[in-house]
């Protein structure tokens, strides 16, 4: 069986050209979500590799669901890929998916780390044939098989556990040894070194990893420190790159026909907004870049979710910053004011431009905030 690097190279140079030459009409892919965080990337690549381990005839292409140029902003992912000697040229991105959409009549997708196709890929995928995810269940694609949507710290744990039960033992352990650095890294980051939001599937998965002989990654404490340092390093990024580093778009659908659908672009950032003002020389500079991004991507509202450990106060903190489009400031502010669960307190605001809140509900990250805001919007 080829190792992970050889598998990816073989997909690019042998398997996909063979399918095209033979005029095969259907291509199977494994597609992560549009934020392309470590969990999404690890799940997509590993699931496709396990499929190959099951049968060399199974061609599943792992898609990292961002433009290729955006991967360099995800320095935690680059750190691990470099350790595995996997270059960007061996990977598959949104540009590849767009090209395959032209070359194949049907694109069937196993989607990992999400359970609803995002706007950038909805028109490129014919059918969802499988789901492994840990977000709120949108009740879509009932015929997907597998269809595993369950609470856990990291979706990578669900991928590991699924294949431990659906692959011959010797094939499973051989494949796991090769893709475990990706799965372990995702699991460590999502659970803060197995200390945050850890659920039974995470514990089960890490039992599998503990038996492996890959010292760089099974020394969990040191691996987590290096990964976290790489993930939090935003030096040298522009505001646009910082926004795109961990970014998703959501449509909020109103219950009333009198209200309009709102398109939110939401990014997670690892520094408080005051530090961002310093990093980009001034508050005005920072917000002007945000306004420009909002207009470029035709958003009704750009939302920044900041989170960090505050050494002065000795506690974890969150902020929520809304930057609505002209004419929608009151609507979006009203939406936030009607979201008591988030425990928002205004820190700063400029009418018709932005509001900066401190968010005292520390348990709610983007994964929980956006479904909650959807629920609130459908009632006001």
From TrEMBL:
<dbReference type="Pfam" id="PF02833">
    <property type="entry name" value="DHHA2"/>
</dbReference>
<dbReference type="GO" id="GO:0006798">
    <property type="term" value="P:polyphosphate catabolic process"/>
</dbReference>
<keyword id="KW-0479">Metal-binding</keyword>
<dbReference type="InterPro" id="IPR001667">
    <property type="entry name" value="DDH_dom"/>
</dbReference>
<keyword id="KW-0378">Hydrolase</keyword>
<dbReference type="GO" id="GO:0004309">
    <property type="term" value="F:exopolyphosphatase activity"/>
</dbReference>
<protein>
    <recommendedName>
        <fullName>DHHA2 domain-containing protein</fullName>
    </recommendedName>
</protein>
<dbReference type="InterPro" id="IPR038222">
    <property type="entry name" value="DHHA2_dom_sf"/>
</dbReference>
<keyword id="KW-0464">Manganese</keyword>
<dbReference type="GO" id="GO:0005759">
    <property type="term" value="C:mitochondrial matrix"/>
</dbReference>
<dbReference type="InterPro" id="IPR038763">
    <property type="entry name" value="DHH_sf"/>
</dbReference>
<dbReference type="InterPro" id="IPR004097">
    <property type="entry name" value="DHHA2"/>
</dbReference>
<feature type="domain" description="DHHA2">
    <location>
        <begin position="224"/>
        <end position="377"/>
    </location>
</feature>
<dbReference type="GO" id="GO:0046872">
    <property type="term" value="F:metal ion binding"/>
</dbReference>
<dbReference type="Pfam" id="PF01368">
    <property type="entry name" value="DHH"/>
</dbReference>
